[in-house]
Amino acid sequence: MAAAATSAATATATATSVTHLSPLSKSVDKPSFASFKTLHKTQSFTLTHKIHSKTAAKNPISDVIASPESYPDEENSIFYDDGDDKPREECGVVGIYGDPEASRLCYLALHALQHRGQEGAGIVVATPDGVLKSVTGVGLVSEVFNQSKLDQLPGDNAIGHVRYSTAGQSMLKNVQPFVAGYRFGRVGVAHNGNLVNYQSLRAQLEENGSIFGTSSDTEVVLHLIAISKQRPFFLRIVEACEKLKGAYSMVFLTEDKLVAVRDPYGFRPLVMGRRSNGAIVFASETCALDLIEATYEREVNPGEVLIIDSDGVQSLCLMQHPEPKSCIFEHIYFSLPNSVVFGKSVYESRRIFGEILATESPVDCDVVIAVPDSGVVAAIGYANKAGVPFQQGLIRSHYVGRTFIEPSQRIRDFGVKLKLSPVRAVLEGKRVVVVDDSIVRGTTSSKIVRLLKEAGAKEVHMRIASPPIIASCYYGVDTPSSEELISNRMSVEEIREYIGSDSLAFLDFNSLKKMLAADSPNFCYACFSGKYPVLPSGIVKRVGDFVDDGLNGDIDLIDGGWLQGSKDQNGKDLDINFEQQDGKVPV
């Protein structure tokens, strides 16, 4: 594949027309390298397409050297289960080019993306003297950065990252953006997604002498860039990305360039906007553009590489161009309702999900409430369609974070109560429909039902604004192993009995696809169907350990325990062999 990329890059091509791609479009007719005509920052993004040709240089390159931050060891700390039983979006990215307040704008944009990761944040800037400087840390954006730290980050160009990772020592390592050195300079990178061929790529690189400083899949990208012999620099990124499989929306920063790239399937969102002064902004969601007063221009297309420098904007296309498979959970749970993701309003999607539930799974009730915050819009849609009042029956505390306490079972039972408080005046004596976005393990749902009944609800009817989750995600979402997913091992009626509700209904899978209409084939439904667009390869302990957000530490290995995925794209079962240790199957 890399050889093909080199051949395409060095070939002399005649000018040709290239269709402007949409992430939700079936038409994906792309050449190996297609470029937009370069333009100045004050010009429009309405561009003419032409083939772009470059000659690869034959200069040798140096080893990449990653430089992650180091933090105190909290290996013995015990994290309290706060009861938030949801899939976790792994991270959010921001890139800003051409604004003297780049680091501060990046800081604000990361605030807007805080819902995509609350356990770490970082910003890298290219200073006026051509040096990449970074500030990274564990915690919320407001905890990592202050005025003095932002003062340390002067420059017109910046990238930023927020992340979620699992509890324990691993959260203290690998904080992005990474900054690495190679023969011709330095490069920073921030990554949202997960590379399913990470292990095989890393093994090949290590065999050839690469030394890794982190356990992150993102570092593989830096090593691939370092060993590439392509010139100029952005063709190194193109060649590296041609070797990647899985989900990646990434922003790169050099001394004088900002590069944004999205994987050919378009699993994770990445949008582009522009501020009134001509500064160009990239972000995981449009809500970040809104906060810093940047006008939305378009999505970064699946398989597109955008290069921003003093000469303007240039667009290249990766050689792979499969049918897009954007993550449907961005609309169900991850993204903010005020964002436009994959060309669709998240608010409108969730409202319609609720309307479908009310139409297909009605029940006599007195009030409709939501599990805040992600269930609110679907609950509004349900209530409006059913003609039943929507009220705030659960109050969410936004000030509950990790608590370092001994997690006895008695204390664990308070987890949901710390976050959700029932409103007795709304619930007492009422037949209640409670709308949530999803059920993962079922533990939180059972506690919510109990809370509502303890507050006096006469009946509790659960309505879930997504189909049952039966399979884990490999593409940048931290979900439990399939064995832990309640819908993978119980029927709907068995789940209803387990959580204790009077009735339970999920959004019908076929109704979901019907609602998406012509865009339906362009979404990934692997968590609902077990059919994966790109199957992972490698040796993993469990699906949850395979998922790496670019920050969450080691991947445990089991000799001989190859994970191939649960089903192929035709729905045929595949073998999953979890090798036993000490007579037990690891979970």
UniProtKB/TrEMBL annotation:
The reaction(s) this protein catalyses: 5-phospho-beta-D-ribosylamine + L-glutamate + diphosphate = 5-phospho-alpha-D-ribose 1-diphosphate + L-glutamine + H2O
Alphabetical UniProt keywords: Glutamine amidotransferase, Glycosyltransferase, Iron, Iron-sulfur, Metal-binding, Purine biosynthesis, Transferase
EC number: 2.4.2.14
Cofactor(s) listed: [4Fe-4S] cluster
Single biological process term from Gene Ontology: purine nucleobase biosynthetic process
Gene3D superfamilies given in the database record: 3.40.50.2020, Glutamine Phosphoribosylpyrophosphate, subunit 1, domain 1
Database matches in PROSITE patterns: GATASE_TYPE_2
Domain Glutamine amidotransferase type-2 intervals: 91-311
Keyword Transcription regulation: no
GO MF entries: amidophosphoribosyltransferase activity; iron-sulfur cluster binding
Known pathway: Purine metabolism; IMP biosynthesis via de novo pathway; N(1)-(5-phospho-D-ribosyl)glycinamide from 5-phospho-alpha-D-ribose 1-diphosphate: step 1/2
Family: In the C-terminal section; belongs to the purine/pyrimidine phosphoribosyltransferase family.
PANTHER family attached to this UniProt entry: AMIDOPHOSPHORIBOSYLTRANSFERASE
Protein name (database record): amidophosphoribosyltransferase
Species per Swiss-Prot/TrEMBL record: Cynara cardunculus var. scolymus (Globe artichoke)
